[in-house]
Amino acid sequence: MGKLSLRTSAIIRLTSNMLRNNNVIIHIVSIYVFVHFGRMLGSLASIIPERKNAHHSIRQSLDSHDNVEVEAAIFAAASFSSHSNSFKIAVKKGGNTKHLENIKKLKDSVKRLAIQDLKLLAKKAPHLWTRKNIQVLCECALSTPYNSLKLGMLSVLSTLSGTIAIKQYFSPNTGEASPAPHHTDLVKLAQECCYHSNLAVAAHGITVLTSIAISCPEKEVIQLEQETVMGMESLILLCSQDDSKTAQDTLKTVLTSLVKMLKSCPHLSQSSVELLLAQLHCACDSARVLMCQALAAIATQQPVLAEGMLGDLLDLFRVASHRTSEKQQELLVSLATVLFVASQASLSAEVKTVIRQQLENVANGWTVYRIARQASRMGCHDFSRELYQSLRTRVASEHFYFWLNSLMEFSQAEQCLSGLSDGDYSAAMSAISEALKSYQKGIASLTAASTPLSPLSFQCEFVKLRIDTLQALSQLICTCNSLKTSPPPAIATTIALSSGSELQRCGRISSQMKLSMDEFRSLAARYADLYQSSFDADYATLRNVELQQQSCLLVSYVIEALIIDPQTASFQEFGTHGSVLAESEYELKMLAVFNHVLEEVENLSRKHPPVSYLLAFSPSPRTPNEPIPVQNNQQLTLKVEGVVQHGSSPGMFRKIQAVCLKVSSTLQTKPGSDFKIPLDSKTNEIEQKVEPHNDYFSTQFLLNFSILGTHVVSVEASVVDTSGIEWKTGPKTTVSVKSLEDPYSQQLRHQLQQQQTGPQPGPQRNIGPRQ
């Protein structure tokens, strides 16, 4: 019996070691060893009922994922339970504990999934949330003692707070009075969470309270504004000195809510800006970056950064240049941006000197480029030109050199256009002339900077449109000035009456104004084409392009109204004072549209490679210039395949839902004179939308070429995004098809021609009298 027990113990130890081994082969072998040994253990349970290592091996195998091993362990466990009370109790206790743990995990997963679904519903369909739904969620969040559950429900309320659901919550039901915001559970929950020990919960509480303060009724707004700002200030003071990720995420959320709050409550801007400036001195570098970004966002909304604050900002810029943290370079960019905003596009010599010295000492080339880009966006074109010029010699690539040189020339051009005064048309003409010179140099450098991988098509087209717009404005000023130098002749009224055209009363200026009107409409159409081809552009760039298009349309409409119906553009009935104010408002708006274009066009300095395609046709010509032959009584099946090539960040602003392929054919060579051209078969025009799978798409077109001759088939691709908007991204590819007459028709045509001309006379013999 002792020898058997020793051998059994040895087998148990060996099997346990094999089961714990990470080697796959050994583990599989151990399972089958345990299967046979487990049945043997069941038979030996009466001999070794209290063997602890046998108990451990059986309990471990009960949790196995292999069904065969579990069955063997169950057989052994049943045998040991009948002979060992300790093993029976251990198995029951372990099973109950694991059962409770599984139930707890299941409950947690159900709660987590329910909160995720609620958040998705709040994001996709906020209009479905009633006041009762939000109230139930608030009561549950107020009563739960668990921070994780409270955080999940607050995230749902935070998503709902920026939607129409909040207005529905505070709107009274039919026959009920409007609920006071302070007496609602939603406000109580937000106020309670603003000072919560969990920073993530506090951040969501601030977000909800900010949205309530912005959208609540006017009579209750003052007290809620003060409470919201106090909660924001406490979190800013707490998180600005903590460089942990949780604290910085909370600070970013609070500062975003602060910018949103000050946009709707501008009277609170000054005190908030002073708090941020004071906290900048004692905050950590990562918090300083976020606070500087918030300061710049607030200052772009309202001019709250006074000249007296420039001294503190310059001191902070000097201090930042001496720090050695990893956030130093980003902090320099953020502080420089705040300085540009505070200077209101007119940097003093002192500010330029301080920034230039610190950049020469510690800044790398990428930081200098980012600061130059921010100077361009904020209207400091003179300083950005200097920075671009200094960077040209610090790049190793020829393309980068031409890129920086083009930005330098564009900044110089925009600097020529800044500082123009109203009514000084001669200065405006000189400024436009100088700007056009710099723009022409810049477009040449920009073309040289393009490569096959980065063609810069959007940038080049936008600058060309900018040049043409300035030329159109210059021509419009010259046309208006020509009215003084070349007024209508004395017989203009007689000419208008005799010709029946009222436009002749204005003389030659009417035809010139019509040309200007057509030119501005053409520019608007080109801006619209550029908009539709910019699938990968950011929203600020698209907004700027659309603004330029609407401005050109506005100028053309004004010219049309002045020429066709002058009464609609007359301000005489409003008096002299009203006329002057109206003209001044108009001039200010036009200057705001056409000046400082580089301030918002981020795509000129932040390149997003556009969406492109690789298209292939089947059948394809054997040589590039050889047409594809097809008989005129047959139809050609053209198969178009393609692969979508994304840029560096696909789907950043919009995603591709389908690729729209348009196929059209035109007759290039004229058919013979003996053929009649059917009116319905001159061209093929077919359009199909294909949904790409893994960026691959394929479709077929059935084309008819019944007219003999060479046809040019054009295939143009465009993109349809998830919103259903079509973007004309291109490309447009052509292929030649030659339509040949089928042999049977050719034979019939030859027989018909022979019948119409009759039999040909044979050769005549010369018959004469014999000599």
Give an overview in words.
It holds the Pfam family INTS7_C. This is Integrator complex subunit 7. Residues 381-561 form the Integrator complex subunit 7 helical bundle domain. Residues 39-88, 106-379 form the Integrator complex subunit 7 N-terminal domain. A hairpin with a 4-residue loop joins strand 7 and strand 8. The longest helix is centred in the first third of the chain and has 40 residues, at 85-124. With 771 residues, the chain is α+β, with helices and mostly antiparallel strands. Residues 569-591, 593-609 and 767-771 have low confidence and may be disordered. The chain is built from 27 helices and 9 strands. Among the domains are: 2-83; 395-485 and 507-607; 612-747, Immunoglobulin-like (Sandwich), CATH 2.60.40.10.
The residue ranges in which pLDDT falls below 50 over 5 or more consecutive positions are: 569-591, 593-609, 767-771
Total beta strands:
9
Strand content: 5-15%
Assembly state (oligomeric): single chain
Structural class: alpha+beta
- Main sheet characteristics: 6 strands, mixed
Separate helix tally: 27
Let me know the average pLDDT.
78
Which value, in Å, is the CA radius of gyration? Answer: 40 Å
Helix content: 55-70%
- Termini Cα gap: 152 Å
Backbone shape: extended
Task: Write a brief caption for the model.
This protein is α+β, with helices and mostly antiparallel strands and 771 residues long.
